[in-house]
Known about the structure:
The protein has 404 residues and is of the alpha+beta class.
Amino acid sequence: MTKEISKxxxxxxxxxxxxxxxxxxxxCLDLSINKPxxxxxxxxxxxxxxxxGTKNYNSEELANEFEKYAIDFSADTSPNFLRLKFVCLNExxxxxxxxxxxxxxxxxxxxxxxxxxxxxxxxxxxxDSPRMIALDAYCSTIFKDHYxxxxxxxxxxxxxxxxxxxxxxxxxxxxxxxxxSIAIVGSIDKEKVLPLVEATVGKLPESxxxxxxxxxxxxxxxxxxxxxxxxxxxxxxMKGWLVPSYGEKDYFSMLLxxxxxxxxxxxxRLFLELRDKKGLAYVVRSSYETLKLVGNFMIYIATEPKNxxxxxxxxxxxxxxxxxxxxxxxxxxxxxxxxxxxxAFMDETNAQQANSCAKFDIMGLGFExxxxxxxxxxxxxxxDLLECAQKYFNDNYTLSIIKP
Length: 404
């Protein structure tokens, strides 16, 4: 295995990693999003339109090109970045790079009305799910009045006001005012890969930093939101806090708290206490989502409506325990092993490695931040976990419930 980390002529940071004997090569290009969209839904619609036609291919012809060469190509957005990625056979790498360049340079966004109409029908279908209603309300409440509070319901309210000009301006702004990071992982010789990357991605507008315009969200109160839906046979409850994100000292402790409390399945505390012992849950778990400016730690349970108050009490009991009683050395060690095993599983393929490395670099952490995470996890102590839980699991939380 060989690796090279450097910059293209336009200051785009790249990582080339050679993984021997792999027949498919993976490429992930991330472009940072540095300011909120002018109307909620603009960035989402923009990424969908990138694959719906260019100056040289209409949407059907572009899809046929991807299919003809078996190129798995996609474009999507997160609150932090626009991402374009592909996986292709080694012999089709040049064609895949040509199509990546075509999408970036020549997209016409001509099918704007068609994609907007499709999105307007898709959102109500998604919001037919009670869990999605609760989650949508949770996100818009914990990130109240902030760009990170991306909501399907809010997008549905604003989508008719979005214009094609909004899309064009948003894409142009990102292209000319973004940090850009590309990760390439496969078994094609570097001498064949980098000239093609330089001739395409290296010709994009220069990668820039220092123009980030999104303020850090704060949560300094308890926020509660409740929804109702007829004929539900279960309630969905979500409770969460704003916590550290990548690059912060307590990030590593929070990763392990997530494993211990609810993301390790059958062995997690929430599962053992609320489902196994008390029989309260159909599903119970915790999650830890990390954005550029902040992390979001959430506990989720699906239960019979009559058990809502009992479940909330169970949440409080488990949070109190993790804040007052140090975890055992064995539980901590098991959590570390679980997390290290997950990292290994998530980095099995070239595509997973390219996606992960590009994401960390676009966040300003470098392509190899995963190595930093693994190293720092090993140094976390039971006292670190106790102090982290005490610091962040407080009365400044958001609670979202949907019930009959």
